[in-house]
Amino acid sequence: MEIENIDGYKDGGTIKIVTPLVTYCIDNRLRSTTKGDVYMGYPEKDNSNRVILLQEEVKIDILRSIEDYEDTFHDWRPAIRTLLNR
Fold first, then answer.
1. 45, 17, 16: which is closest to 31 by C-alpha?
2. Residue 43 needs a FRET pair 20 to 30 A away by CA distance; which of 8, 50, 52, 78 works?
3. Separation between Cα atoms, residue 27 and residue 12, nearest integer Å
C-alpha cells in the first residue's frame, strides 16, 4: 500500500490515511466502542462503512506502509501503532 497523506480529525483523534485507491480512517472518536477499527472513509454513526472482512489484513498493511511514509510536519506513526495494536 502506498500512503499519499495522513491527517487527523478533531473528534478525539480519528486518523485519516489516504492511498491512491481508497481513504481509510482509524477510529478514535470520543466515546466510540470501535476505537482502533479501520473504516472506508470517516466512520459513519452506524458504523456501516467499517472494514469487516479484511480488518486484520488492512491493519497489518497499514502498519507496514507507515514505515515508508514521511511527514515533515507531524509523525503519525506512534499514534497509528497504538490504535491498531489495541
1. 45
2. 78
3. 9
